[in-house]
Amino acid sequence: MKKFTLFTFYVSILLFSSIYANAQVAVNADGSAPDGSAMMDVKSSQKGFLPPRMNTSQRNSIQAPAEGLVIYNTDEKTLNIFNGNSWAPIVPVGCEQMFTDPRDGKVYPTILIGSQCWMGKNLNIGTRINGMVK
Question: Is the pLDDT of residue 18 over 60?
């Protein structure tokens, strides 16, 4: 009877100590432990990481997104990050893509002039106030 009680005690200690341990996850094929600085460590030389995929409407319906939340926007064909105030593309837009203003969702063309990428149209934001020219 004492052996069973002692065994139960050790198992209980082991279970309770694992509950309060620092939880880290390693996703890999080689069984290696996660890096000490990472909560989740994904390692592969043959496959990639696939974030949640959704369109702009679905992205915008996320209630109170956390700062740093990342999704793949299927409408914009780019990764988006929530910067604490609004959604923005993670990768800077190149001249081969349209620019979507994260403030209002308006889409603008870009053009390559020499080696520089320029907006093809002015941003259409705000209200024009006519003034007198002196």
Answer: no
